Amino acid sequence: MHQEAATMRSLSLSVCVLLLLLLLLSFCVCERATVFSPLTTEALEQGFLRDGFTVDTWTEYRGFRGARLLSTNATVLSTGLPKRAYYVEGNSYEMGYLSGMLSAPEVEVMTTTYIKHFTAEMISPAWDEKIRKSPLYNDIITLMMEYIVTLCNLSFKDDNEQGLIPGELVEEIQGLSDAVLDQLPSSYASVERLLTLNYGIDWILAHVYRGTLTATFLQHSYTPTAQQTHEENNIPEEAVFLARQFWLNAGDHFFVLPAFCDAYGVSGNATLSGEDVFFARDFQLPVGTVYQDYQAMYIFFPVDGRIPLISTAAPGFVGSVTAMNAAGVAMGVDVLRSGDTRPASPGINSVLLVRHTAHQATSTEMAIDVVVNSARGVSWLYPICDISGDCVVLESGVQLPPDTPFNGLSFVQGGPTGVRHYLPNEKFMEEHNSDDIMRRGLFIRRNNYKYPSEFQDFNPQLFAFADVPYAPDNWNETGRIFSNWTAEHFDDTSKLLDNYFPPQRETFDDVVLTSNLAVVPEIRLAQMSYFANFVTHSAKGTQWRYDSLNNLLVENHGKIDLEKAKDIITFLSPAKSPGYWTDEFIKGEPMTALIEGSISVCDLKAMRIHTLGGYWCDNWTSLTLTNYVSSSPSSSVDQES
After folding, report:
1. Which of 105, 326, 400, 484 counts the most CB atoms within 10 A of its CB?
2. Is-contact 523 408, C-beta < 8 A?
3. Rg (CA), the chain
4. Are 285 and 334 in contact, with CB atoms under 8 Å apart?
5. pLDDT tens across 194-218, in order?
6. H or E element at residue 264
7. Could you tell me if residue 137 is left (phi over 0), alpha (psi between -120 and 50 degrees) or otherwise beta?
8. For the chain, how far is it from start to end, CA to CA, in angstroms?
9. Residue 612 region, left (φ>0) first, then alpha (ψ -120 to 50), else beta?
């Protein structure tokens, strides 16, 4: 009897456990996910009006809608025309096609004028001055542009065949090109030119940071493909010969990178309300004489399960300078000059990676996973925030195989008289490693990251080696290593450049910020490579910008609302930093200077992105994602069915 009772108790316990497991399984199966649905045309138009836009044109392709929007309160100084925004929906190809239908003339300009002038703006001022003396200057620039298009596409083809580029992005570029060519049959907006616009910056930087670009140009110039390029573009042999001479004499000192960026994320107690989350960034890059006129925001609504988002860029860009998605994740990208690149296979980085990640991630943690597992081949910084206030800066290099250590010292040139002599040795690096925040060549600097202060002990001797005064008081929470941005300008004889360990200024757990420098010591070492250091000549106050932005965030901690967030991120405006931007549309009026790139503030609790582009005196435009997207919970069972 006792045995029978024990058996019954055991059976009852088993049944209870089974019921509990079934309950847990039921909970897991019915876990809610968010499904996003497009709104009616009438609802969309009402949303556009609430955000200060009217519909200029509706168009349709394969049953999907696209709209070109005109701002009711913001115009571009140089043209007097209303600033634009775009709405497109569909699968990747359809969204690309609709984008092309709505902006064919602008895409044509971006794939011709912009690419050509961007090429010219990469040449170092000293060499540009020499080339401009030649009557063949225009031919040489055309030659370089065509080489970049050809070589960039050969590289992209290899990366794409290896499956390194998400197919959705490739399909969208194809749709974009097809639409423009359908409307403008003689257009230059080929897939090849659009790939150069979106992937070209990564291909270029992968080579510039390793010092291989001029050698690649020289080698290519003797190929049959190059000979065909010369003939098709009527480039005289004399121009080809002169270009080769310039490349041989200058080496990779021929190129600079006039691109600079800043970003910050604040949440919780850093904000006036104690509850808001603001993500702010400026992206400063060559405008190629036209970007400032065409810069716009895009609402992308994919119907393939990816998350809808708002992207800032310009016609022709599939990638995103800044993106904010309907799950409340915002992301940007900042230049990081570093020797940690893979010229043979750049993979997916920068604007394409921002766009790809923002379509996938429902949180900062998921965004990190996407970037970690993407085939990165160029160093960049990726600031990210989500609606919960989880903010990070990803200091990213080449994607490493799993469990492979990162060796920052390998990028620094050796020699008993060089900077390597004054840096930590291998033993020190092993004892003070950042392996706990490194995943596959990417360092995750969270808003509670604590800098290993032992690295600061190397700075006095690094400054002494560079013959630059070292002031200990400049390294505290609100210090400035350089008094102003001009003081950080490095001439050709400077040995300092990036050869020191910058301090982490942020001490609040609700603040994270970045400019164009790595804070994590290992990846900072990668910035000390020879060619990465050379292009630092064009960095325009990287440390000063980081320090200045930090001081503003410390000064305003606990006081930041939307207007203050805008005020802080526009710290480089001509009114606040005279002389930093000087390309004035109206001479003698500093605030008519053009904005090289764009500036955005994402108010994540309100799901609203505010963007300033064009000229400093222009008005901001804004879009609220909830005006264009309907969301509802749906179980995973529903999704599968």
Report:
1. 326
2. yes
3. 26
4. no
5. 999 999 999 999 999 999 999 999 9
6. strand 260-267
7. alpha
8. 51
9. beta
